[in-house]
Amino acid sequence: MDFYSTKGRIFNIQRFSIHDGPGIRTIVFFKGCYMRCAWCCNPESQKYEVQTLIENGKEKIVGKDVTVAEILPEILADKTYYRRSGGGVTLSGGEVLAQHEFARDLLRACQENGLHTAIESTGFADFEKIEEILPYLDLYLMDIKHMDSAKHKEYTGAPNELILANAKKIAQSGKTELIIRTPVVPSFNDTAEEIKAISKFAATLPGVKEHHLLPYHRLGQDKYAGLGRNYSLKEIEPPSQERMEYLLSVAEESGLKCQIGG
């Protein structure tokens, strides 16, 4: 099989990022997601279908079909920066696992070209899909948003049992570095008890050493209007620095290396 011909649907490629993994990175954003998180900053990523977004009064087409071979040159263009900074490529979304074959083959091509590979993912998929990706993955940045399944479903549209089970399986596999990340969203999970529960769970995962707390922001709010959608958290203010530092101290009680941002 010529895995360079595998097709996928993306909506953005962001170069020179210093987030979502170590060093300078290129982020490839996949179209399509299993969840509908109330705070999602990329609402244009949720539907797999190609969409029209009104941005600054102009129509913008969101979604493009590409092959591994077509986008690889853009990723490899910054190979010098990856090497100097310890960076590489990160696949994000949307949900990467919703296009797991494209993710697998793109990661494989990147690894064969000497790049560090990472994905940013909820882990909400059959483990068989994750297993196909693991051999080509250096770092799994996994969101664990809440330990209570009912509250998780209320705010994301999906329960959390599969996510927690997959986190254990990924950690037990020992095939990739696993870092747990939590978006800290007021009214959803910004209490000491909620953060402590997540960090305590993360500390039980074999090989997991880090827990990153990502403060909620509203940078994607205008996109909802551009898609003709309502943003349900418009009354929610981002957490203060003092609040984040307090929650950081709570997370650190787990013994993990914790940080704000990631």
End-to-end C-alpha gap: 36 Å
Mean pLDDT: 97
Number of strands: 11
Q: How would you describe the shape? A: globular
Order of helices and strands: EEEEEHHEHEHEHHEHEHHE
Secondary structure: helix percent = 25-40%
Sheet with the most strands? 9 strands, mixed
Number of helical regions: 9
Structural class: alpha/beta
Radius of gyration from CA coordinates? 18 Å
Give start-end ranges of low-pLDDT stretches: none
As laid out across the biggest beta sheet, the strand order is: 5-1-2-6-7-8-9-10-11
Beta-strand fraction estimate: 15-25%
Keywords:
33% helix, alpha/beta, 9-stranded mixed beta sheet, 262 residues
Describe the structure.
Helix content is 33%, strand content 25%. With 262 residues, it is an alpha/beta fold. The strands form two sheets. It has a nine-stranded mixed β-sheet. Helix 4 links the parallel strand 7 and strand 8. Helix 3 runs parallel beside helix 4.
